[in-house]
Design brief:
The chain is built from six helices and nine strands, in the order βαββαβαβββββααα. With about 230 residues, it is of the alpha/beta class. It has one domain: Rossmann fold (3-Layer(aba) Sandwich), CATH 3.40.50.880. It has a nine-stranded mixed beta sheet. The chain is globular.
């Protein structure tokens, strides 16, 4: 199998649990570390899938690699290559497909419930109608034309969509306990004034092991659906 290319935009937002899933299955990967100056490939010919992780930047920032990633996503749409986006990665997918990305009404940070949008989809088969997800974002996106809306939350309507072989997740299913602790420490200033959409530091770390276990059970369902697409490549 050709490798799955994983695009990391900042050192602390790597593939996390998704990487563990790939390792268990023996699926080859190649990390494109944008934070280390790695270049975005011009062609998707040697890949079985594209995965885009998160990051604190905006897809609307004038950074040279953003347009390169958008072009690669558009190429994947034309060739039918599976694409998966997490948080910033989901916003990249949305923008590449022609949708607007802009500030959300509030920042959504911490553990918050995610609900199915009400439209039955095989992507969510086996998941409860509502479950707890981990969030850390200040922007949101419109749904691209032809996309199917999958998930929403009280603070952000567009939490997930699928279009053809592309899956975009605004919330973070890739988290490990160590990642939550690291982000909470690195970005603790963002937790200084908790509110409806932002948890406190202590609340974020409360019952962490149980929350991660539950989140990874959700991730297993979602990742299984996406990884099934790789068998065609």
């Amino acid at each position: 199998m050709k490798p799955v290319y994983i695009f990391r935009h900042i050192a602390c937002e790597g593939p996390g649990y998704f990487g563990e899933v790939l390792n268990r299955r023996g699926i080859p990967t190649r990390l494109i570390a944008i934070d280390r100056g790695n270049k975005v490939p011009a062609s998707d010919a040697d890949m079985s899938g594209l995965v885009f992780m998160g990051g604190p930047m905006s897809v609307n920032d004038k950074l040279p690699w953003i347009e390169d990633e958008l072009n690669l996503i558009r190429q994947a749409q034309r060739t039918g290559l599976p694409v998966l986006g997490h948080c910033l990665g989901a916003q990249l997918v949305a923008k590449a497909l022609g949708a607007a990305v802009y500030p959300n009404a509030v920042k959504e940070i911490g553990w918050h419930q995610v609900q199915q949008s009400g439209r039955s989809s095989p992507w969510l088969a086996g998941l409860p109608l509502s479950f707890e997800g981990f969030h850390w974002h200040g922007e949101t996106f419109d749904l691209p034309e032809g996309a199917v809306h999958l998930l929403q939350s009280a603070h952000c309507r567009h939490q997930a969509f699928v279009r053809d072989r592309m899956l975009a997740l605004q919330f973070h299913v890739e988290m490990t306990a160590d990642m939550v602790k690291e982000w909470a420490a690195l970005y603790r200033q963002e937790l200084a004034s908790p509110g409806a959409g932002v948890q406190s530091y202590d609340a974020m770390l409360s019952a962490l092991e149980m929350r991660i276990k539950n989140l990874q059970a959700v991730a297993d369902v979602i990742y299984d659906q996406w990884l099934a697409l790789l068998t065609d490549n």
